[in-house]
Amino acid sequence: MRTGHRNTALSRPKTGSHTQQSRVRGRSSSPSSKTNAAKDRARIWSMAWVILLVLLASAGVVGSGWVALQLMVNPQALSWINQLVPDWIPVPVTGLKPPQTLQEIQTGIRQTGRIPGEPLPLGKTKAFWIAKQPCLIC
User: CA 44, 47, 51, 52: dihedral to nearest 10 degrees?
Assistant: First the structure.
């Protein structure tokens, strides 16, 4: 067994007709530059697939969020979903009522023989994100 000698069984021999022809003709292209170009192309395509996958995933998240919001706010607006689900999943949409005013709710309670309670005002703000901040300078 020789020491310092490269094991030829594990490495690929660098002889071939392509390398000899390129040396003879004086071309500067080598197989390694072609493999680098192929690797670059593969890297570009894989990056394009990753970008496409991220865009599709984000569109799916946004779309499902929109559908969920519509189902919470106005379930009748999404009656087209019934066409997409199988027939063995019943999704009744016909029994929904439109929103009622406070007076309508109170009269409905009185008609059933009950006494409605006093309404609790939530405050002057009209949205949850418009809350009064404490004044630090005052």
Answer: 70
- DSSP state at residue 66: H
Q: What is the 3-state composition of the chain as percent helix, strand, coil, each rounded to the nearest 5?
A: 50, 0, 50
Cβ neighbours of residue 31 closer than 8 Å, sequence gap 6 or more: 18, 19
- Per-residue b/e over 85-100, b at no fewer than 16 CB within 10 Å? eeeeeeeeeeeeeeee
The DSSP 8-state label assigned to residue 128 in this structure reads T
Torsion, Cα of 30, 31, 34, 35 (10° steps): -140
* CB 85 within 8 Å of CB 71: no
pTM of the model: 0.42
CA atoms within 13 A on the CB side of 134: 1
**In the chain, what is the straight-line distance between the N-terminal and C-terminal CA atoms, in Å?**
90
Q: What is the pLDDT along the chain (138 residues), one digit of tens a residue?
A: 555 555 555 555 555 555 555 454 545 556 677 788 888 889 999 999 999 999 999 999 999 999 888 888 877 777 777 777 777 776 666 666 777 899 999 999 999 999 999 988 776 665 555 555 555 565
